[in-house]
Amino acid sequence: MTVPTGRRERKKAATRQKIADAALRLFLERGYDAVGIRDVAAEADVAVTTLFSHFASKEALVFERDDDFKERLTRAVTDRGPREPFLPALRREIHAMVRHCSAEGAAPIWRMIDASPALRTYEESMRLRHADALATAIAAGLSLPEPTTACRTIARFVLDAYALGRGADEPEAAVDEVFRMIEAAWEVARPR
Question: Coil, helix or strand for 154?
Fold first, then answer.
């Protein structure tokens, strides 16, 4: 996450975090469907309009690190070494993300997401947006004018590796297994 530099930016970031923390606390205590936007705003001691200036929807409150997730994926491709292939860089980043999501304390959040059709739908649309951004980064890294079908497919597979790893009994092994398939697919389909 980018650290805000100015006072105003720091205050906005602090308010955003206060809202997200209040929302998560209420969702875990009462259940996602039992908590309304007004409840979250009251708990965070902000106006509903302030809440909506930071979050576009109730679902976005749960996925408050959405932009950071997308940025980490694209940076794994764009910030890698000049001769490093992008797939090992992405594998490392997905491993780090899966470790974070399977850490102690994350299970109640994922159970809440898995139990809510609205949150599962939001997560899926979020993954598709991230896959589009990742495909664009992959294409740019290959000096392609736009993402090819192969770039878009590999990007979706990478996001699937994250989702499958997050839900696996052995997350690291699951990510490695999926990446072996991704690497094999890329070897066949990559632009030459």
Answer: helix
